[in-house]
Amino acid sequence: MIETGVVKVFFGTGDRRYGFLTVDESGEDIFFHFNDGRNMKAGRDRPEWCDPPRGKGLWDPKPGNEVVFRRARGTKGSKASPWTYKSLYKRALREIASRPRYRVVTENRAVGVEEWSDSSVAWEGTDLEDPKLTRLWDPQHDRENFSCGDFHSRKWFEISIDGEWSYCRDPRI
User: Fold this and answer.
1) In this predicted model, what pLDDT tens digit does every residue of 110-167 receive, in sequence order?
2) Residue whose C-alpha is closest to residue 80's, from 94, 61, 55, 57
3) Contact 23/83 with Cβ under 8 angstroms?
4) What is d(CA 85, CA 113) in angstroms, rounded to the nearest whole number?
5) Residue 55: its pLDDT value, please?
6) CA distances (Å), origin 99, targets 26, 34, 131, 161, 163
7) Are 20 and 29 in contact (CB under 8 A)?
8) What angle do CA 93, 99, 104 make, to 5 degrees?
């Protein structure tokens, strides 16, 4: 679980680079060490921790800096590990939110029946490499319209543009 806090104090001299931050929710002070600092990137559907920072002085925390962290068990109790600046977490969230949203819509009908069923959303998301999507619709083998015995089915992609859904070709092709 990601928690938030504010740097209370940081001792950044010599080899011992550590400090304490105040947890937003509980108000408790928790230990953190500089070496547990990480960058954050936009993952498929949520921010992910990645490589530690590079360059001396670039990442030195200062009192009042807002951070996000995971709570870990240290030798003397809880500690923030990994941790990063809240601005990096927010940037990753913005990047994820700015990705186009797609969905696959399906309709079915029995042979001899004119009306298609009400359409239903079979998959929705931003991650076009989602294994659930590949199982639902393999672009190498599946077609938009197909029949199997007494059953007809059709499916198509839609993209959300300014909150409105409209038809689009399979974006993976």
Assistant:
1) 888 888 888 899 999 888 888 888 888 777 666 677 777 788 888 899 999 878 999 9
2) 61
3) no
4) 59
5) 62
6) 34, 32, 18, 11, 13
7) yes
8) 125
Farthest-apart Cα atoms in the chain, separation: 81
Rounded CA-CA distance 86/101 in Å is: 25
Closest CA to 47 of 58, 56, 39: 39
DSSP state of 86: H
Write down how long the chain is. 173
**pTM for this predicted structure:** 0.71
3-state DSSP assignment of residue 133 = helix
Q: Is the dihedral of CA 43, 46, 47, 48 positive or negative?
A: negative
User: Which residues lie closer than 8 Å to 46 by C-beta, 6 or more apart?
Assistant: 96
The amino acid present at 106, given as its one-letter code, is T
Exposed, middle or buried by CB within 10 Å (0-12, 13-18, 19+), for 135? exposed
Dihedrals φ, ψ of 87, to 5°?
A: -60, -35
Answer yes or no: are the C-beta atoms of 104 and 172 closer than 8 Å.
Answer: no
At residue 68, the pLDDT reads 97
DSSP state of 51: S
- Cβ-in-10-Å burial (0-12, 13-18, 19+) of 130 comes to middle
Residue 39 CA to residue 166 CA, distance in Å, equals 36
